[in-house]
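can u do me a favor
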């Protein structure tokens, strides 16, 4: 296939191959779902890094990323963050370490923290989807790249009409672009 012919449909992962859990699932159930999806996925491709969260009707309402799962370990992060990374805002490592001490983050053994977090509900830590996280299957790849870059997204949900049919991951788009670059010099 010529690399300039890549389409969203070519690069997306069908929704049936992606890890999913209900919004009522626990964090532990989400981790097990992700582990199962990774084991069953094509091992020549990048592994999944998120779990899609479904409502009672089976509609995708959010994503639980690896970072969201780590945030779930320490509920005090909700007090500290409004969604932006502190490092990206220019805070030093020393300042961030002082915040750990001030808020008494991770002040218990890791096993205890994990045991508590494992029973937390996914809906409490998932990332709710925004309008900018959907792309139509027939859209041009450059439109999807634009959304990924400007939205700072790791993935986009691919739609056909109003149905979600897949997920377009940043890693797969990057691999296609990297392949195109290589073709330019070979």
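np, heres the sequence
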């Amino acid at each position: 296939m010529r690399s300039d012919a890549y389409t969203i449909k070519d690069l997306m992962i069908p929704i049936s191959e992606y890890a999913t859990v209900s919004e009522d699932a626990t964090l532990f159930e989400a981790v097990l779902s992700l582990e199962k999806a990774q084991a069953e996925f094509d091992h020549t491709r990048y592994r999944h890094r998120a779990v899609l969260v479904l409502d009672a009707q089976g509609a995708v309402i959010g994503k639980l990323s690896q970072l969201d799962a780590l945030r779930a370990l320490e509920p005090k992060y909700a007090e500290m963050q409004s969604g932006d990374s502190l490092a990206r805002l220019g805070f030093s490592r020393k300042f961030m370490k002082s915040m750990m001490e001030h808020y008494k983050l991770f002040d218990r053994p890791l096993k205890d923290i994990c045991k508590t977090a494992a029973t937390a509900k996914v809906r409490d830590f998932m990332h709710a989807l925004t309008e900018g996280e959907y792309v139509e299957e027939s859209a041009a790849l450059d439109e999807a790249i634009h959304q990924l870059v400007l939205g700072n997204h790791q993935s986009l949900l691919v739609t056909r009409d109003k149905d979600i049919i897949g997920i377009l991951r940043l890693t797969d788009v990057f691999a296609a672009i990297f392949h195109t670059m290589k073709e330019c010099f070979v």
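The two ends are 16 Å apart (CA to CA). hope that helps!!
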